[in-house]
Design goal:
single chain, 297 residues, alpha+beta, Helix Hairpins, Heat Shock Protein 90, 5-stranded mixed β-sheet, two-stranded antiparallel ribbon, 7 helices, 7 strands, extended, binds adenosine-5'-diphosphate
């Protein structure tokens, strides 16, 4: 409901802008036809009309951008609230059950496992929000060391396999050999994990993900994460890296997220002199995310 309301509001502002500019042009053309002999007045008129048209156009663009930004902030607040509340509510429920009812050993172990998973989920949301603040601020300095990228990727692959219970054949790693990069271990690990985690998360039931590395000109190493998931429309390939941005549609409501992961990956890549991009043949054709980083000398 709220979504349709906002869409209407954006459409309303665009229509108002176009309407005002059209009226202005019609008035001006009428004025021109009536007064075409008074040259100087016409030139002044043209300038005035152009200035007013530009003003209306800029104002409309600004309004539409602001509405979109608000929309994304609201979606982010909702997502974070949901991601914080759900695991806490779940942990509370299990604790209450353990406190008030006799529970046999097997059930008790199962409850502990679920509570641990919920607390991991909670921690990862909190960490994601805190990291967004850190990577977005120039005041936060890197803590650079020489990093074995192969080792980082292996541990991220293992982590994602465990978190999402993916069998080994569903998530494969094909390294090109050892590759060292110079950077902040915590940030590089977060960027690599976000890409692999997304590939598995958005593939949903049928996980078929390949992680591979390749060297470019002996100067860069490229990590490619390929999935056979829902794919991404061409128009969205760049937008997905914006802060809070989630591709609108049924996927965003089915698979929860905050819209921060890829923003973090892009910020980390930039901070390390690298870049990240997405490739996809469109919805239904899977996606590939590539992270390029300079090789340590
Ligand atoms: P989140 O996953 O929390 O929504 P991200 O910044 O990681 O935030 O991703 C932004 C958006 O990009 C996601 O909401 C999703 O629409 C899209 N996306 C990211 N990775 C993939 C992928 N592997 N396949 C399809 N869509 C993806």
């Amino acid at each position: 409901m709220e979504f349709t309301g906002r869409r209407r509001s954006i459409a309303g502002h665009i229509a108002l802008g176009i309407g005002l500019i059209s009226i202005l042009l019609v008035l001006y053309i009428g004025y021109f036809l009536l007064n075409w002999r008074h040259g100087i007045l016409l030139v002044l008129g043209i300038l005035l009309v152009l200035m007013i048209s530009c003003g209306i156009l800029l104002n409309t663009i600004f309004l539409v951008r602001e509405i979109r930004r608000n929309e994304q902030h609201d979606a982010f607040i909702n997502a974070v609230t949901h991601e914080l509340k759900t695991p806490v509510a779940s942990i509370r429920l299990y604790l209450e059950t353990l406190q008030t009812r006799p529970v046999d050993e097997a059930k008790r172990k199962e409850f502990y496992r679920i509570m641990l998973e919920d607390s991991d989920r909670l921690l990862s949301t909190i960490e994601q929000v805190l990291r967004t603040g850190r990577v977005g601020s120039t005041a936060h300095r890197l803590n650079p060391t020489r990093i074995d990228l192969d080792e980082v990727i292996r541990s991220s692959v293992e982590l994602v396999r465990t978190l999402h219970r993916v069998p080994a054949e569903g998530l494969r790693y094909q390294p090109c050999g050892p590759a060292a990069v110079f950077g902040d271990l915590d940030e590089i690990r977060a960027a690599v994990t976000n890409l692999i985690d997304n590939a598995v998360k958005y593939s949903a039931a049928k996980v078929n993900v390949t992680v591979e590395t390749a060297k470019l000109d002996g100067r860069f190493v490229i990590l490619r994460v390929k999935d056979q998931g829902p794919g991404i429309a061409k128009s969205e390939l760049d937008r997905v890296f914006r802060r809070f941005y989630r591709v609108p549609g049924p996927l965003a409501s089915r698979i929860k997220g905050t819209g921060l992961g890829l923003y973090i990956v892009r910020s980390v890549a930039k901070r390390h002199g690298g870049r990240v991009w997405a490739e996809s043949e469109g919805p239904g054709h899977g996606s590939t995310f590539a992270l390029q980083l300079p090789i340590a000398k």
